[in-house]
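Hi P.,

Sorry for the delay on this. The queue was packed all week, but I finally got your sequence through. Input first:
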Amino acid sequence: MTMVAKLSTWLPTNNWVRFLFAPILVFIATSVDRNYQTDFWHHLARGQAMAEQGRLVNQDLFTYTVAGVSFQDANWLTQLIYHYVFQAGGLPLVQLANSFVLAIVMVVVVALCLRSSRSFMASAAMGIFTFLGLWQLLIIRPQTFSLLLFVLIYTMLELAQRRRSWLVLPPLLMALWANMHGGFPIGLVLVGSYVLAALWDSWHLRGKEFWRNGKLWCFALCLLACLSATLINPYGWHVYEYVGVTSSVANARRIDEWLPPGLQLFAGKVWVASVLLILFLFALPGRRPRATEVSLVLCFLPLSCGSIRMVTWWLLIIAPIAAGLIMENVRGFFTFEEKPETPTRSAAITVLVLAIVAVSCVPVLEEYNPVLNWIGRTKRTEDDLYRLASKLRQEEGKGRVFSRFEWGEYLGWSLAPQYKIFMDGRIEIYPDDVWQDFSAITRGRADWEKVLDRYGVDYLVLDSSGFNADLIPQIRDSDSWEELAASGNAILFRRRPPREALAGIEAH
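Then the structure:
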């Protein structure tokens, strides 16, 4: 065998390209994302506080509206990870790590699709479809680890259909999950879906003696072990109170992610398409859906109808199901078989190009990316907030800051402890009266100035892009406030000392 022939056996095939395309797409899209990282900075702030104090932070340290209020922090382990990664390489390294984890999630999803369909083409298609549905939700936050743990448990449950020893691992991952993100109860729903499927299979085979089925007992004990494992956290069973309060408060206050999926959002359109796809595939005359597939759909579809956040789990669940049913029906109608592919240089070149593009999109290297430089790199909102925070540090003494709650996360992290904020992303800890006052100020209600006076607010960091469109003109017309600085869409206002405010009134 010649050297060229030997080398060709190590070259990738077109199937490599199909398998890797969706994971690399996820990595690139999340690596070049320059949008404001909502729901990251307050986690980083608490991670920093825990590292400095050497203990869990179970009370508010950053606001003046609910200062000292107690709460359960189910994200504490992720927050510490964020702190140490940020210390090592700042936001670029955190974003790189987040993109890498999300790419692994997609690798697992595509592998599950391949296992069910035995088709690289169908697996790649469902991977891309899943990515499109999740795209708007893939930001830097603890939910990234929930996605990873969810698909890993999903994989183990699938493997346990043939080898029950895999059921030892889900409880271990659930114990980890309960300390990383409050989304861990969805893992119990996932395991419970397999218990229901095993119950149905057992009833179908044994009738009234269904309870004698060993598979059913194995999955039921796994569910019990998973439930028990979630109690291995600093708050015990009280962690479920945090989950319940967060979801109910977010829904009541009309937070976008917790609203039902609508066609006004791209994720809502993908959700509708996914539901129609599954219903169509279930109705086809080919292979009948398996008990596990029916159980998963029946458990996760109603949840996905309730909120955009639950659509995430629905899309991850149905990807392997849809891939498998598509190929079963295609093979039923047509003579179709994917033949083993031989390695080719063109496939090797494609894989190499994808790898180069992915590496060039790494945050620390993006300035050398010719495509990004050509289309123009979007400036981060954090850059504007950094400039205003630097201006505030030049002010003497301490102060109270009001801003949109997403920006409050960054300001709370960057200005503590000298400055306190009105509100950040932990919406579950703010009582209704504080939330209503926040809304009144944001909308520029007639009594906005009285509300600010009542809270003793010293500074305003407002968004001129539309969020504070009704408030900013009134601030500028008021003699009690002066514009101190601006950067991008962010504007910093300072309360005038009483004498200056009085002089302004007399001048009018």
